[in-house]
Amino acid sequence: MRSRYQLLIFVIISGLSACKYTTPPEMLTGKWYVASVKANGHEMINEYLDNNTRYLVFNEEGTYQVGLLDSVSEKAWMIKPDKNELVMMQGSPFDDIKTWKVKASDELIYLTDKKNHFNITLNRKRELPKVEIAEENALIGKWVVDKITVNGYNNTDKYAFPKRWIVLAENGRFYNGSEKGDQNVGFWRANSSLTKVNFYDNKDREESFITFNIVNNTIWYEKQNDSYDQPKVRIFFKKLD
Fold first, then answer.
1. With pLDDT > 90 as the criterion, what percentage of the chain qualifies?
2. Is 219 exposed, middle or buried (0-12, 13-18, 19+ CB in 10 A)?
3. Is residue 20 over pLDDT 70?
4. β-strands 30-39, 42-43: how paired?
5. Top-tier CATH class for 21-125
6. Which helix (H) or strand (E) holds 48?
């Protein structure tokens, strides 16, 4: 009897092993977080993606979304199950590569381009994060210093810092000053994924002289030091109602 059960298990396992591996569309449909982007074995995710763009959504109707702020538009995707190939017809965030070899489970997707240059890991997400600032106009207004951290610790009360403010105006100008009356002026632009605000002293200048990060409803920057021994000081601004 025991040998008969063993034979049955062997037959079942052999049958399963003989099945060809395919990737049906429903295995990709849903929300995904880009956990890793490796180029030739080196982690490069920060070179390609930021906090708002580290997401992919494959919709059932055959369209896909790149990042939290993508409007989807006409971007279309399809899967070739027998070839285990994903086709993103309008390209992708990774060098505009359209065709990917895919291995998928319920919670993970592994993507590899045909030349095996890129290796992408996606983790399934049940819900996408909420974006507090979803359009550039939401940045327009007066921002004041709200918090100062030193090496990650709140040091607002102890850090000698004047009550400074920044006005981001509708015409792309900024005005930066303090209660003492000193004021700087220049130009500002947000990046396309609304994760950074770049400041320029000349409207046509390509490189900004300082960049603020956008996280939820705050903007912040880190004071640059020439020495690695100096503490990391971050200045956070909140928008006045």
1. 45
2. buried
3. no
4. antiparallel
5. mainly beta
6. helix 45-48
Q: Is 3 exposed, middle or buried (0-12, 13-18, 19+ CB in 10 A)?
A: exposed
Helix or strand holding residue 8 (H, E): helix 2-18
Rounded to two decimals, the pTM is 0.72
The residue ranges of every structural domain in the chain are 21-125, 136-239
Residue 34 parent element (H or E): strand 30-39
Closest-CA residue to 66 (of 20, 23, 27, 32) = 32
CA–CA gap between residue 78 and residue 76 (Å, rounded): 7
What is the rounded CA–CA span in Å between residue 63 and residue 71? Answer: 11
Q: What is the 3-state secondary structure (H, E, C) of 67-102?
A: CCCCCCCCCEEEEEHHHCEEEECCCCCCCCCCEEEE
The per-residue pLDDT for 227 is 65
- Summarize pLDDT for 107-132 with one digit per residue, the tens: 999 999 998 999 999 999 999 998 88
| pLDDT, the chain, mean | 85
Q: Give the CATH class of 136-239.
A: mainly beta
Do the domains 136-239 and 21-125 match in fold?
Answer: yes
